[in-house]
Give the backbone structure.
Amino acid sequence: MEKFLISGGSSLSGKIRVKGAKNSILPILAASLLTSEKVELKDVPDISDVKVMLNILECLGVKVTRGKGILILEPGSLYTSEIPESLMCEMRSSIFLMGPLLGRLGKVKVSYPGGCDIGPRPIDLHLKGLISMGVKIQEENGCVRAEVKSLKGSDIHLDFPSVGATENIMMAAIYAQGTTQIHNAAKEPEIIDLQNFLNKMGAKVKGAGTDTIKIEGVKNLKDVSYTLIPDRIAAGTLIIAAAITRGELMLENVIPEHLEAVIAKLREAGAEIWEEADVLHVKGGTIKSIQSVRTLPYPGFPTDMQAQTMALLTLAQGTSVITENVFDGRFSLVNELKKLGAVITVQGRSAVIQGVEKLHGAVVKAPDLRAGAALVLAGLAAEGHTIIEEIHHIDRGYESFEETLKKLGANIKRVGAPAVNV
Ligand code: UD1
């Protein structure tokens, strides 16, 4: 098992370019199955979730050519609609292969998806949407078998603006007869990215970014070349890396508008942040407490930035409160942060963080992707040596995280087991 060894205390400084968004590339890879023509994708992050998704696509019959930051997919005629269980279990996002496979082949068999252990993640909204488009669903032994003769446009109201369900239904609706409307749709920027990608292939999707998305069915999609939007969560994580180490960073390839809620809260926490077109400058200073951070669907404060923000607030002057409203069980890093000297109490959906003057190095485990990144940030600020175990979670969503941080002056390295001294 690989680990990160961190020797804390260095202030980060320098310039770094943010890569394409993990939460865009995953649905866009799934959406590529909707065409038989060539798909070229640019600014693709080299992360393990992408590798898993590409393995799945190859199993379905897609020819994949990998370049640096570029992918070429040739879906041709797919030869199966069954996704291997072992791969499905590695990544929850594989659930949104259902929509495109139903559109292309009229059937699909998936097992219940895996991914981060951040509380119960049901798929009822995905299934309800598909059922209302005429799909017959059978659930047996942890598998979902779905079949449809011809998808029919439908009016779908989501009980919660689920990102995955919105994307899955959008993709299923591309070849449906008539018009589909998704009400109370998720409004995340990655949904607009998916809409733009689909429309560039010839789909007729409108309204992404608002709470009603309208999809008019079409007969086929053509080839496409598409560049992904930058990863707002990777950018947000680096902003906190600057703030927590009292450093100064320049982040290139950022869409500041996508980070409005994060920037506002980090300014409250004392970071100086200013924008210049697609460049964001961050300067860390004294870390101040924040009275309330509440995670919400976009444009609210993203749940995917909650853990990193908690790491920062452990070192704030005063007491802060974070409330997690999107996922249950997303405070798994609290016990790990405590090992580093943080003082945190969890009360239901809220965590009360009493800032301390210093964190100290310890051996901790990354419980999931974002919590793992948060522990790295805490380790960078802690005095002494920190060992982070289970870093495969971090590799799911950050391209060579340690290399990025090293370039900015962090003292961090990756080692294989057994662990050695820093
Ligand atoms: C996506 C993101 C993930 C982010 C999350 C919330 C990708 C690949 N992943 O995950 O990084 O943390 O959005 O911004 O884009 N829910 C149901 N029933 C369903 C579906 C969801 O009850 O059928 C609930 C979930 O349990 C959760 C909430 O809705 O409490 C939000 O989930 P959702 O927006 O679907 O997240 P994902 O698409 O899985």
